Amino acid sequence: MSLRIHGNRSLKTLPGDGTRPTPARVREALFNIWLGKIEGCRWLDLCAGSGAMGAEALSRGASQVVGIEQWGKACGVIQQNWQQVAKPQQPFQVLRGDVLKRLPQLSGQVFDRIYFDPPYASSLYEPVLEAIAQLHLLSPDGEMAVECDRQRPAPNPPVSLQLTREKPYGNTLLRFYKSHQN
Question: Where is the signal peptide, in residue numbers (predicted)?
């Protein structure tokens, strides 16, 4: 499959349906929503798949990108894709493993933008939102986007995260969360 990002850059993808890259239309919409908020941000890409979202963030000036992906072959592709688009001053890291086991290793770090795109039928939605809240991974002014099937009921976020908006794109739905301001 051919996959292109900002600047008409081509990315590698794995054959088959082991990863499900975010559709170009959804990717473009997200980066339009977050226009002006990517340059200099710290980006966390959960269930990173092909790494297209992190690559897009790097190409738009994110200061740091961290990705978590369970599938080893996908981690190799992500590493190659990010290496291709990152500038020397843009650190990035690809962590292989179960997202719920890897998130605690990020304790003490804070991210301005978090993108979470698990397999749509997975049971990861609520536990990952809970882990992000407990570990304080989302910066106070940051925002998290969660990609899911449009028919999927919204997960119950922990009290420290607030669902702020939903944007449908065909069968895909983006849900946006911010830190709850008391």
Answer: none
Tell me what pLDDT residue 182 has. 45
CATH label of the domain that carries residue 133:
3.40.50.150
Question: Which residues are 68's β-sheet partners?
Answer: 46, 95
Pair of tokens at residue 83: 């290496």
> The whole model's pTM is what?
0.92
Number of domains in the chain: 1
Say what the alpha-carbon torsion angle 117, 122, 123, 129 is, to the nearest 10 degrees.
Answer: 0
Q: Which amino acid is at 118?
A: P
3-state secondary structure of 72: helix
**Residue 96 resides in a domain:** yes
Domain that residue 166 falls in = 3-14+25-179
